[in-house]
Amino acid sequence: MQSRDEYHHTAAIYDLLFSRSLRGIRYNICTFITHCRARNVIDLCCGTGEQLQMLSKEDIVLTGVDLSPSMLTRAREKGSRKIIYLEADASRLPLPDASYDGIIISLALHEKTALQHKAIFQEACRLLQPHGHIIIADYSHPTSGLSPLLLGKIVVPVIERLAGINHYHNYRDWMRNGAVEGFLARENPGKSILISSHFQGCIRLCAASQVKESPLQASLKKIQANSPKTEQPSFIFPMKEQDSD
Ligand SMILES: C[S@@+](CC[C@H](N)C(=O)[O-])C[C@H]1O[C@@H](n2cnc3c(N)ncnc32)[C@H](O)[C@@H]1O
Fold it and tell me: N or C: which end of the chain has fewer CB within 10 A?
C-alpha cells in the first residue's frame, strides 16, 4: 500500500507534538475498552504506541500494527513487553478472522484514500469478534461558533497540509465526504455510536459494532434519550472532555 516510510521524519517528534493534546481521546478509548471488558485488543495504525501503552495497565492482550518502522521503533522503545508489535499493512493482515474484541483505529483513516480507508475498515470487520467494537477516533465537522470554526477551518487544515500534499488531499476528501460520521454511515453495516467529542467537535470518538445493537449500545442510547439535549453527547462512563482539559 505504501512503498516508503512516510513517518520517518515525524516519528522522532510525534509524541512531543501530540502526546499531551491527545491524552483526553486516549483516556476515553481506555475507559470504553475497560467498560466493554475487552480482553484482546489490536490497535491498527498504532503509530508510536501511546494508546497501547496506556492500556497496558489493564489485564488485556495487546497488539499494535503499523506500516512505519520508525513509528514502531518509538513504540518498542516505550518498553512494554506485554505489547506485540507487527510491521504490516493494516488492510492485509496475517491474522485469523474474529480474533479481537476491541479494535482501535485512531487518527489514521483521514489521511488515506477512500479505497485505503475502506480496505482497513473491512479488515477490522474481519478481525472483529461478533460482540466486539471497532473504536475510531478521527476528524469531524466542528460544532458552530467562532473558535470551533477557526480550529476546523484553519488550525486543522494547516496541520494536515504540513503533513504533506497527499495527506492533505486525502484529509480534504475525508471532510467533503462527511468525515467520520459519513464514513461510518457508508461503511459500517452494523451499529455506530458517538462516544465523545474533542476539540469542539473537530475530532470525534465513535464505536462501531457488527451486531445491530450490543447491550452496551442499548444502555448508552437509553441514557442519551433520557438526558436533556445538549450540544455534546451524554456519556455512560466518566469520560474526559478534551476541550475542558
Ligand atoms: C497520524 S498517525 C496515528 C498514530 C496513532 N494511531 C495515534 O493515534 O497517534 C497514522 C499512522 O498510521 C500508520 N499507517 C498508515 N497507513 C497504514 C497502513 N496501511 N497500515 C498500517 N499502518 C499504517 C502510519 O505509519 C502512522 O503511524
Answer: C
